[in-house]
Structure formats: structure tokens, C-alpha cells
Automatic annotation (TrEMBL):
InterPro entries: Ig-like_KY, Transglut-like_Superfamily_Mod. Pfam families: Ig-like_KY. It comes from Rotaria magnacalcarata. Signal peptide: none annotated. Residues 7-70 form the KY-like immunoglobulin-like domain. This is KY-like immunoglobulin-like domain-containing protein. PANTHER family: HILLARIN.
Length: 72
């Protein structure tokens, strides 16, 4: 990551099940496991020039993660 961006980038992520649908047949983006949102199973760190996302999913399955960066 360039030095000029190190303190100007904010990272956001969204984790969901690959095949999650609600009763209307639409993708359900508010999935949680036992009252805990899936995004709580992701640890995001920035160290020097490296941005890391460690994901420890609560159960076996297929997942999608979307990662975004924006200038602040």
C-alpha cells in the first residue's frame, strides 16, 4: 500500500452465506448465527503495508465476502 494512502483508507467488509435466501426468495444480507452477525467472525488488521482479513466461520458451508476500501 502506498504511504500516501496508509492513513486515508477505510476498509469495510460484508460476509454472508453463499446460498442465503429469505422467505421472499431474495438474498438475505442480515444473516446471523445464534444472534451473532456473521461479520463478527471476521478480524480485520492493518500492519505496515499489509491489510489482512482473518475469517473463522461458525459452521461449515459456502460463504461470500465482499471487501471495500474508501478514502476518508
Amino acid at each position: 500500500m502506498p504511504d500516501s494512502l496508509k492513513h486515508r483508507l477505510a476498509f469495510h467488509f460484508h460476509l454472508r452465506f453463499a446460498h442465503a435466501t429469505n422467505t421472499n426468495g431474495q438474498n438475505d444480507d442480515s444473516i446471523d448465527i445464534h444472534g451473532v452477525k456473521l461479520e463478527r467472525y471476521v478480524l480485520h488488521t492493518v500492519q505496515d503495508d499489509l491489510v489482512s482479513f482473518n475469517i473463522h466461520v461458525p459452521q461449515e458451508g459456502d460463504y461470500f465476502i465482499e471487501i471495500f476500501a474508501s478514502l476518508v
